[in-house]
Specification:
The protein is α+β, with helices and mostly antiparallel strands. It has 2 domains: 3-203, Up-down Bundle (Alpha-lytic protease prodomain-like), CATH 1.20.1510; 210-284, 2-Layer Sandwich (Alpha-Beta Plaits), CATH 3.30.70. The protein contains 8 helices and 4 strands. It has helices spanning 3-32, 35-61, 76-104, 113-139, 143-168, 175-203, 210-221, 255-270, and strands spanning 228-229, 233-237, 240-249, 275-284. Strands 1, 2, 3 and 4 form a 4-stranded mixed beta sheet that branches. Helix 2 packs antiparallel against helix 5 (143-168). It is elongated.
């Protein structure tokens, strides 16, 4: 199963799981006036949007290159992850406002064992989704999978704090509920900001990472006929990069041999996991 198919499957599981959690969190949260549970429900609503963006973005990114998009549609992953990040930050600001309002007005939640049950069900569901997406993300380099994995992990931690705030209400400690709501909003904002920065960098054609450049340098050193090279240039096409390189060889080398050398080096570099295509220009020296 390729990276696009597993991402599609992960997106579908995320949509189903988060719709289920949204329904039960909203019902119990509003019934008990728990600000942290309402914040958690809003987080699940954002998760549904994120899973939907994962599904759509992955579908577009899986389309092969054509006459109008020669190098495929891989950047769709990052466009849709940008949408996810913006939605997360917008939701977090609304939650921050509601939580501060709740804290100032000293709102009190109504304790219910249903709140505890919902937290436990949420933690189990999100932990299962996290373990599933974590396994997939280790095999496939996909920012949408990575974003979903982090989201599921964060939800496990956030809901654990929500559970603590609910249990503290048994001893009439209500202020912690508002504090947790504020903490959740900051957590969502920071996560969204990190995804935004990563997506922005790819869409603005960030260069290939230094580790890969070092590997390319090692490949070049395997060919003693190459006397020098220009700096390595690259541009991203989704999660992979196109690498452009100029090499200099002895001017007396035949055109056939110099191009054979370039072809071999291109094959070596393109074998790297995050390289889509290599273009080498040969100059005599």
């Amino acid at each position: 199963m390729d990276r696009f198919e597993v991402t599609k499957k992960a997106g579908m599981f995320g949509i189903i799981g988060n719709i289920f959690l949204l329904v039960i969190k909203s019902a119990v949260g509003f019934a008990s006036n728990s600000q942290s549970m309402i914040a958690d429900a809003a987080n699940s609503a954002g998760d549904i949007f994120a899973s939907l963006m994962t599904f759509i973005g992955n579908k577009i990114a899986s389309e092969p290159g054509d006459k109008t998009h020669n190098f495929g549609h891989g950047k769709a992953e990052y466009i849709f992850s940008l949408f996810i990040s913006i939605s997360m930050m917008v939701v977090s600001l609304k939650l921050l406002y509601d939580s501060i309002f709740s804290l100032i007005n000293k709102s009190e939640l109504t304790f219910s064992w249903f709140l505890v049950l919902v937290c436990i069900v949420t933690i189990i569901t999100k932990l299962t989704l996290y373990l599933y997406t974590n396994k997939l993300s280790k095999k496939h380099n996909n920012i949408l999978l990575e974003a979903n994995k982090k989201d599921h992990r964060n939800d496990c931690i956030v809901t654990s704090f929500t559970l603590v705030s609910i249990l503290l209400s048994l001893w009439h400690i209500y202020w912690f509920d508002g504090i947790v709501g504020i903490g959740i909003s900051f957590w969502i904002f920071i996560t969204g900001l990190k995804i935004f920065i990563e997506s922005y960098n790819i869409l603005m054609d960030i260069s290939i990472d230094e580790d890969t450049k070092n590997l390319i340098g090692e490949f070049i050193r395997n060919y003693p006929q190459i006397q020098k090279t220009d700096d390595i240039s690259s541009t991203p096409v989704g999660y992979e990069h196109i690498v452009v390189l100029t090499i200099y060889v002895d001017g007396n080398m035949s055109t056939f041999d110099s191009h054979k050398l370039a072809d071999n080096l291109e094959h070596d570099i393109t074998s790297l996991e995050n390289v889509y295509q290599t273009i080498i220009h040969v100059n005599p020296i």
